Amino acid sequence: MKRWRNAALLFALLIGAMEVLARMGAWSPVLFPSPLEIGRYLLEAVADRTLLDASWVTVKRLMIGYAAGLGVGVPLGLLTARFKIVDDTLGTAALGLQTLPSVCWVPLALIWFGQTELAMVFVVVMGTVWSVSLATAAGVRNVPPIYVRAAQTMGSRGFHTWARVILPASLPFIVSGMKQGWAFAWRSLMAAEIYVTVLTGFGLGHLLHYGRELQAMDAVVGIMLVIVLIGLLTDKILFSPFERFLHRRWGTAQGKR
Amino acid sequence: MNSGLEMKNGLPEELTVRGVSKSFKTSRQTIRALEDVSLQIRGGEFVCLVGPSGCGKTTLLNIVAGLETPDEGTVLADGKQISGPGGDRMMMFQESALFPWLDVAGNVLFGLKLRSDINGKKRREIAANYLKLVGLERFMHANIHELSGGMKQRVALARSLAPNPRVLLMDEPFASLDAMTREQLYGDIQEIWAQKKKTIVFVTHNVREAVCLGDRVILFSPHPGRIQEQFEIGLPRPRDINSVDLAKYATTITRALKRILRPELEEVNE
């Protein structure tokens, strides 16, 4: 609780100081709006639903793309670790493609899918798949062989061994791959939204883009805050349960109380 | 122990090792881990395999477990050839090999869940029962990383015993524990063996440990791995590792072990 109080105090001070400086005319309001103006924008945009609609459009793209990315990435990683032929082909491809910033897929996605939701989702998938796949494969390779032997002596075979031993034993790696994949996906989606207009839905990136065109810096900064908020919430909702589980079971230092 | 809380199983198995050889290829050379090893183990016997590193004792254990296949020869359990791991033979390793993603009870339940002939309630009862047997019923829901080395090996023992195997294979299970904990476990394992009637094959470096636990101690020599000598241990049970009689046996076996090691040392000196 003390931590929260300190954080709240610090931010209140910062915001207060910015408000005072902005009113004294320390900088032009075109460059950076005062905190009150940002607050006013946020209230209005929530009230007329533009912000909520845009957030939903963005989050939906992200969730669909991310789920698809996990759905492809984890099995791909398992196959890469299991079969040498897959490792030599798709595994090598994954390694190369992971180094490609996923926003570089946007031009291709636009040609393939047009200015549609699918193009945006595709970019998210490309951001997720390779990181998750590589991390899963690394996780499997790092499973101590003794776990598999122990499971075999207890009667575990084939698919059971993969589902109940190798996959859970790789979990620390998979979760860190998921976090990296999420980070890539989120960044590339924002870049894509700012740089392409998709007619089927206006996401937060589009709002940001129009904010700049209209010189509405209160909107730009306000939307940036919303983007930060979504990032924080995802971390809490999507990853915290996993991290708590890893910490509890493996006794790793991260997330220590 | 209440027989209603046990999985059904037959008598302890008799093991027959017949002319088993096994080699491993490394990039430089071929290592003869076992050469023409034959061995008869009675049902319910406690046998300890000792010998210097590289004498193939762990390899033999893995072959009996069905985790490795011999190049030549066969291993029979109650007259039937072993072709892979089976529920009648459970193995315990030097490191506990407990699964960190499961809690203590989850680990003990792992083997039980692979048996379709019992329901969930009975599984949990059996698991609880075996955790009680190793004195860890209060730690049912503890995480593995919270346990000490000795506690981990106790859980591993409960996990191997829970499906009621007829043979227990133990690969230096106490090697990484401190002396005090080890002494406790010597008592426990003898008690459990007497109570549960199992064939136990126990691999160790420690001659005293072998004499303390085994009905018979089998001494292996390395390069290639062969049976050098066998010793029947006629001491009454339960045995105390610090007793003088036990020390006499240990001295005899240690001498034999040194005779094996000496030519090796001379080889190194040359």
Describe the protein's architecture and organization.
Chain A is mainly α. Chain A has helices at residues 2-23, 35-47, 50-82, 84-98, 106-113, 117-141, 145-153, 158-169, 171-195, 204-213, 217-250. Chain A contains eleven helices and no strands. In chain A, helix 3 (50-82) crosses helix 10 (204-213), helix 6 runs antiparallel to helix 9 and helix 9 runs parallel beside helix 10 (204-213). Chain A is globular and about 75 Å long. The relative contact order of chain A is 0.12. The model of chain A has no long low-confidence stretch (mean pLDDT 90). In chain B, the strands form two sheets. In chain B, strands 6-7-8-3-9-10 form a six-stranded mixed β-sheet, sandwiched between helices. A four-stranded antiparallel β-sheet of chain B has the order 2-1-4-5, with helices on one face. The chains are: A mainly alpha (257), B alpha/beta (270).
Count of alpha and pi helical runs of chain B: 7
What is the C-level CATH assignment of the largest domain in chain A? Mainly Alpha
Beta fraction of chain A: under 5%
- Radius of gyration of chain A, rounded? 22 Å
Give, in spatial order, the strands making up the sheet with the most strands of chain B. Answer: 6-7-8-3-9-10
By DSSP, the count of extended strands of chain A is 0
* Cα-atom radius of gyration of chain B: 19 Å
Secondary-structure-based class of chain B equals alpha/beta
- Would you report the number of β strands of chain B? 10
Rounded average pLDDT of chain B:
89
- Oligomerization status of the protein chains: heterodimer
Residue ranges of chain B: pLDDT <50 for 5 or more in a row?
Answer: none
End-to-end separation of chain B in angstroms reads 58 Å
Q: Which whole number gives the mean pLDDT of chain A?
A: 90
Structural class of chain A: mainly alpha
Main beta sheet strand tally, sense and closure of chain B: 6 strands, mixed
Output the number of helix runs of chain A. Answer: 11
